[in-house]
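Hello K.,

You asked for the raw outputs rather than the summary table, so here they are, unedited. I folded two proteins back to back in the same session to keep the settings identical. This is the first:
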Amino acid sequence: MDAAAKPDAREVAPDMNANVDSSAKRVLVESLVIETDEKIRQKLICNLHVNEIQFGSMGQFAYKDIVNVATVYTNPNALTIRAYVLEGGKRVERNMKLELEDPERSRFFRQELERRSARKRSPHRPKNTSGNKLLILINPYSGQKRALQLWNNHVIPIFEKAEIDFDVVFTESVGHGTQIAEQLDLEEYDGVGVVSGDGLVSEVIAGFLRRNDRERALKVPILHIPGGTGNALAASICYHCK
């Protein structure tokens, strides 16, 4: 096991009893043992930067890519960080297991990491409120019935690891998505997921436009999980966003 690198004299380990200011550029954690997916263990220094967590020479996770931070039940000093990072144009699951020196340091590190990687409040929700629940609309016949396979085999495992709560509704006919969006309880859900081609996305937007509170409804995030045949909408968005 490699010895931990010496921190720069300007980098001081945080006071475990103090709150770290949100504007702080970095939080230093020393004597950290990291275990990767490949079971590689290494002792080094870990930094919480403004936009990412840096695992010394072993890489980094952007906070926006982290889906879960959990304590390891068998070791109160250990944390598991789960993320889906962008590699070669695709999202790939990556996990890091961190073992800190003591429970107090581990608790502080987890709280700070959770704060920095916390999900943003949905824009249609009032301030000082938060939630973690999605309504998922699935066209079971979309993409020659591949949409349902996509949901079961790929999306559900990610949602479960991210601890996202969700309700699922299977659309039954053309226009069903519009009816659902028109009657959607905005207080119950933080967003609408659409597993289909482009048509169901259009139906949801049409339903929001029919509402008396359309201005608020149009702020509801729409998660399009492309399960159609051509998926022109998703392709166009990805091209525009590079």
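The second followed immediately with the same parameters:
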Amino acid sequence: MTVLHRKLDHPILIFRRSSSVRRILLAESFWDVEAAYGRVDGVVKTVTGYCGGSLRKPTYREVCEGRTGHTEAVKVTYDKRKISYASLCDAFWETHDPTNKEFLNFGISTHQRSVIFYSTEEERRKAQESKIRRQMKLNRRIVTKIIASDGADFFTAENQYQKYYLQKYYRILAMDGGLVIGRLAKFIETHELLKKTRLAIEEVIQDLS
């Protein structure tokens, strides 16, 4: 599987388990990560947010200022019948340069870093195996961290940062309006969306009609 998107600067990856599906969180630039994984077959839902810090319900500004200990993240719910945890881990390395030493931050800030958060021992093992597979293809050391998290420290970002590119730059899709309308209509039917996101998509469909 390949994530067709430009390389990112500061991603973070987190996976979550639920009753019928599994969840993954990725981040910074969380707009880019959300856009990349939103196009992967088997992904059901994406939500941007903040993970790993000490403050409850932080704001985007607080996180970017490095005062909360959070990292920008994207929670992705996926259908495990269509895509595996291991495949999503493998796709993670395609979204950024995991050898970039800027991810280490040297204690300055954690809001932009390369991390995989896991919630079970099985997830930790698969994430580590994926990291090793990727490391064997590179001549520089991967600096991505693999860290335990139960998901309770993930907080949803403000509405304006959800489906950011869809909300801000959808008009470029008008080059093939008919195709876009059909795909957006299907997207609404098959994905769980925040109310504001759904309204934004419906507005796009109306504008392109």
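Helices lie at 30-37, 60-64, 85-92, 121-135, 164-169, 177-190, 195-208.

Happy to rerun anything if the numbers look odd on your end.

Regards,
P.
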